[in-house]
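Lab meeting, item 3. Inverse folding demo.
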C-alpha cells in the first residue's frame, strides 16, 4: 500500500531535480547529470587565506594548526541546493547525494591523502545543541561523518576509522551563524560554544566534518577545542567551501 501511494504521489507531484528544476524520476535530490557536473576539488586549502594546497599541510598560517579539505565549491548551485535541502528542509535523502560528492573528492585525493592518514583516525561531526538537533530531527554533520567513515574504510581497508558523535558537544544554544552580519559577529557568537572529551581525543588524528565552510568561525573554534584536548593532527572536511 505504501509503495502504491508513493507511486501515485510521484505521478501527481513528480520529483524535480533541485539543480536544473527538471523532472527527476531516478534520482534523490539531484538528477544524474547535475550530480556528475558538480566540479570536484583536487587538493586542500588554508583555512585562513584559502590558498590551495597540493598536500594536506598548512605552511602559510601554521598557527592555525589544521588544514581544510573541501569537496566542491559552494557557489555551485546543485551542491548548494542539496546542502540546504538537508540542513533546512530536513530532506534526509539529500545526504545520499552529498555522500557521492564526498566519495568523488576522497577518491580524487586518495594517493596524497594516504600519506597523511595514520593507522587510526577519529571522525568527529560538528555538533548541534541538543535542543536544535531535537527540533531538526537529526544532525546533518553526523550523517556525513558516518558516510565518511564508510568511504574511507572501503578506500583504506588496512586502516581504522571511527566516527564518534559525542567526543565534542555543543554547550551553548546560540543563534544560527547565518544570522550574524559579519565575520566578527560569527567569531563572537560561536566563542566557547563547544566542549571536548580529552579522553577520546588525546593523541588522536582527527577529521572534523561539516556540510559547508563559509567564514570558518565554527570549524576554527571546534578545531581549537580539539587541539586543546590533545589531538595530534586535525583536518576539517566539508562538502563545500564558500
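The presenter then showed the designed sequence:
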Amino acid at each position: 500500500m505504501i509503495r502504491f501511494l508513493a507511486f501515485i504521489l510521484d505521478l501527481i507531484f513528480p520529483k524535480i531535480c533541485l539543480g536544473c528544476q527538471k523532472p527527476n524520476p531516478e534520482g534523490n535530490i539531484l538528477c544524474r547529470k547535475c550530480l556528475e557536473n558538480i566540479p570536484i576539488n583536487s587538493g586542500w586549502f588554508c583555512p585562513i587565506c584559502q590558498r590551495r594546497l597540493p598536500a594536506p599541510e598548512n605552511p602559510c598560517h601554521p598557527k592555525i594548526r589544521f588544514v581544510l579539505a573541501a569537496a566542491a565549491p559552494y557557489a555551485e548551485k546543485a551542491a548548494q541546493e542539496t546542502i540546504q535541502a538537508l540542513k533546512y528542509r530536513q530532506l534526509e535523502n539529500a545526504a545520499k547525494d552529498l555522500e557521492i560528492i564526498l566519495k568523488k573528492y576522497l577518491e580524487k585525493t586518495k594517493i596524497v591523502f594516504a600519506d597523511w592518514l595514520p593507522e587510526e583516525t577519529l571522525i568527529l561531526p560538528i555538533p548541534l545543541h541538543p535542543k536544535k538537533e531535537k527540533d531538526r530531527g537529526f544532525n546533518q554533520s553526523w550523517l556525513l561523518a558516518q558516510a565518511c567513515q564508510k568511504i574511507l574504510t572501503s578506500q583504506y581497508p588496512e586502516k581504522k576509522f571511527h566516527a564518534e558523535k559525542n567526543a565534542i558537544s555543543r554547550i551553548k544554544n546560540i543563534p544560527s551563524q547565518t544570522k550574524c552580519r559579519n565575520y566578527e559577529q560569527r567569531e563572537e557568537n560561536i566563542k566557547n560554544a563547544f566542549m571536548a572529551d580529552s579522553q577520546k581525543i588525546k593523541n588522536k588524528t582527527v577529521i572534523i566534518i561539516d556540510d559547508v565552510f563559509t567564514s570558518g568561525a565554527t570549524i576554527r573554534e571546534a578545531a581549537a577545542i580539539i587541539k586543546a584536548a590533545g589531538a595530534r593532527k586535525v583536518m576539517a572536511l566539508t562538502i563545500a567551501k564558500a
